[in-house]
Design a protein that fits this description.
This protein is α+β, with helices and mostly antiparallel strands. The chain has a domain at about 395-549: Tetratricopeptide repeat domain (Serine Threonine Protein Phosphatase 5, Tetratricopeptide repeat). Helix content is about 50%, strand content about 10%. The protein contains 25 helices and twelve strands. The protein has a six-stranded antiparallel sheet, with helices on both faces. Helix 21 (about 460-470) packs antiparallel against helix 22, helix 23 runs antiparallel to helix 24 and helix 23 runs parallel beside helix 25. It is globular, with a radius of gyration of 24 Å. The two termini are about 40 Å apart.
Length: about 550
């Protein structure tokens, strides 16, 4: 038996070696089609987060130069996706909601400077009398993202299953806590865009679905776009899936190097005007051209809608994106991504007349890794953009040789001047800068970078948690603690934030603090029926056992 096992292990090692050699010598994709095929069947090394399943459209100068569908609409029936397949588009919905608001502004039925109490007088005064329509549109309202629901003991997974009327949803949001003074900073908030949907219904006297259909879908002749009922979504949209990459020997026997499972269903009343629209890539291309040609809105108000506010966020669209533009100071675009349970989406409208749209029925797609090479191939550019003045950050020595912090600041000053708003280094860049300074023993500089990142980037819970674990698993594990602490400060009602901090203290062998954090996680989870509370209890017992010795 041992000999058989040894032979199997040898065969596996040989297979891994052959696969590795083949990967090294495989030529880089030369066409958009070759690139997308490599994303559809990525093997064990998933470059974009998940194997691609969905539809893609690339256009140049108003004409489609590539359109193709990949993967399956329904994995159980083996039904393939097509170019006309309808997908949930998640937060790409927000630009449609913004357009509907601006159309009512054009009709003098809504004013951007109005406080929301004018339309929703039943909301608490701290919100009704201080948050404006402009602030909701620009994500400067002070409202939290979905994690703000945890402050009123509502579990996010449970929230997704409940059916709300628009007024009930608005009242629920009204109970959440403001995380900033309205107008001060930009913090992405789907709850704010949900309130816009309720306001649209109050002002127009129509449902969000009716208003969308009458004001955008029919005028543009869109065939696959709308806001459907739960029944319509379940029957007519591509079924959503979750993908989790496997590692080691498990990856050899896994499909595409990972495990794919059907995503849970989300009630449309909770996706609503922040993320509930469905569409196809062709319809979104028609939509993108309509924005630029002022088919739905006057040039004056279109300009207002596309004007970058704090952190470059316009109304329902992001002007540029640091993950893309910091590698090429000449790239300019309007774009927005979207995710749902089992869906990923992105629309990118570049100033150079390139448009890239993808809709996927597998989540975890890393947008920048899709958009960057597609844009290069669509414009016959070199392997990478020519970057002038952005110091190489591979190692501390190369960074310093290229001008260091001074050169970095000059580069982003130029980028900010050209973009018309303050452009900050992306999360990945800040992480890289921290690492090279830690490796060099420049602990004070690394710590300063961490503080700047937390203070100026306003990272969400997911980002703080992710960075915490990345550093916790690195050679600089002690550096992780402040990310976890900050996560509990910003999200004190998140059981996951407290559990993560507890895990960090456990690794540091500070079992007393670990127990305290895990107790907090369990207490919050029990109030909200949080689905991971069993894991939290296991972590608590483990810490308690260690504390007892």
């Amino acid at each position: 038996m041992k000999k058989i096992i040894i032979r199997i292990c040898l065969l596996i090692l040989i297979a891994l070696t052959i696969w590795g050699i083949a990967t090294v010598f495989k030529s880089e994709p030369k066409t958009i089609g070759e690139l997308m095929e490599s994303y559809e069947n990525p093997g064990m090394n998933v470059k974009i987060g998940s194997p691609f399943s969905g539809s893609v459209l690339v256009a140049k100068n108003g004409k489609i130069i590539f359109e193709q569908a990949y993967g399956e609409y329904n994995r159980e029936t083996k039904t393939p996706n097509t170019i006309d397949t309808k997908y949930g588009i998640g937060s790409v919905t927000k630009q449609f909601t913004a357009m509907l608001v601006m159309q009512l502004v054009e009709k003098n039925k809504i004013k951007l400077g109005d406080t929301i109490g004018k339309y929703l007088p039943y909301l608490p005064k701290e919100k009704a009398n201080h948050i404006t329509i402009h602030q909701l549109l620009s994500n400067t309202s002070g409202l939290a993202h979905y994690n703000g629901l945890q402050s009123i003991d509502i579990d996010l997974n449970e929230f997704a299953k409940i059916k709300y009327t628009p007024k009930e949803l608005a009242q629920l949001i009204g109970r959440t806590r403001l995380i900033n003074t309205p107008g001060e900073v930009c913090v992405y908030s789907s709850l704010g865009y949900d309130l816009l949907g309720v306001i649209l219904e109050e002002v127009s006297g129509k449902t969000y679905a009716q208003l969308l259909d009458e004001s955008i879908v029919k005028p543009l002749g869109l065939k696959n776009t709308g806001f459907g009922t739960n029944e319509y979504v379940a029957k007519n949209l591509a079924k959503g899936y979750r993908y989790k990459e496997e590692y080691g020997l498990n990856a050899l026997i896994a499909e595409n190097g990972g495990k794919t499972t059907e995503a849970s269903f989300r009630d449309q009343s909770t996706s609503y005007s922040a993320g509930g629209i469905h569409s196809s890539v062709k319809d979104l291309f028609i939509w993108s051209k309509a924005i630029k040609s002022h088919k739905l809105l006057s040039p004056e108000l279109t300009k207002k809608m596309l004007t970058p506010n704090k952190d470059g966020y316009c109304y329902g669209l992001q002007r540029n994106w640091s993950e893309l533009i910091e590698d090429n100071e000449n790239v300019r675009l309007y774009g927005h991504g979207g995710t749902l349970f089992g869906n990923s989406a992105f629309i990118a409208i570049y100033d150079d007349e390139t448009t890239i749209i993808y809709l996927s029925n597998i989540n975890n797609i890393k947008a920048d890794r899709v958009l960057h090479p597609l844009h290069l191939l669509a414009n016959n550019l070199k392997d990478k953009y020519e970057v002038k003045g952005y110091p190489n950050r591979t190692t501390y020595d190369t960074f310093e040789e290229n001008g260091g912090m001074s050169a970095l600041q000059d580069y982003f000053n130029t980028l900010s001047k050209n973009c018309g708003y303050v452009v900050k280094p992306s999360k990945n860049s800040m992480r890289g800068l921290m690492i090279i300074h830690l490796d060099e023993g420049k602990l004070n500089v690394a710590d300063s970078l961490k503080k700047v990142f937390i203070a100026t980037h306003h990272p969400e819970e997911t980002t703080l948690n992710q960075l915490g674990y990345e550093f916790l698993d690195s050679d600089h594990s002690k550096f992780a603690l402040e990310f976890f602490k900050e996560c509990t400060i910003k999200h004190p009602f998140s059981p996951n934030a407290w559990d993560s901090l507890g895990e960090a203290y456990f690794i540091y062998e500070d079992y007393e603090k670990s127990v305290a954090c895990h107790v907090k996680a369990v207490e919050i989870a029990e109030k909200t029926s949080y689905e991971l509370q069993k894991i939290f209890k296991v972590n608590l017992k483990k810490a308690q056992d260690k504390l007892k010795g």
